[in-house]
């Protein structure tokens, strides 16, 4: 018996389906919002239109940005101009804490929809973290972020692009979804080229995969064009794709 065949459905999903820690980030925002809205605290408030970049590729301003509303994708551009989306962040999540002074950023933040950000200087962040409760939530959110990044790497290492797209849709349903019975309507509309940049394939193959998912009743399009996903069927498909027994 192989190691893979002994894995339970729960353990596989725990590894592969990328935790976000949304409750922690909400608690973090609640803990620091009063300070951020104080006139005495220097912050940078930014409003981005859909598709607008926060800064040019490779640049950084040394701030940590908190998403008040909207969504941000973290993009990376290769020397040849190939675009990769490293992650898509939603309201109450944050980014920029890994940018060191004097070093170029590894990603370029871009708004996926109309987005409002609050930028915090590192000195302000350090003072906020002196509060034991804020520090505890921050530390746990950082642990979950690290685990999320490992999960994304694991997806690319052991899953093909079609399975990665299914996992991507589950992740988006978790972060941007509205439940309607057994289905979840994904409120964030992405282009085929965006999905391609997230899973490492071509736009045409994304179209092929989405059609297969539609044929298998994993997804459907709503009247407004949004994707409506059936998480139960998608999970069953992922288990099948990985050669694991279906959830019982």
TrEMBL record:
Q: Keyword Membrane, does the record have it?
A: no
From the Swiss-Prot or TrEMBL record, what is one GO molecular function term?
Answer: DNA binding
Q: Which GO terms describe its biological process?
A: regulation of DNA-templated transcription
| Occurrences of domain Cyclic nucleotide-binding (ranges) | 51-115
User: Can you give the residue ranges of the HTH crp-type domain?
Assistant: 159-232
Name the keywords, alphabetized: DNA-binding, Transcription, Transcription regulation
**Stated name of the protein:** Crp/Fnr family transcriptional regulator
Which source organism? Micromonospora craterilacus
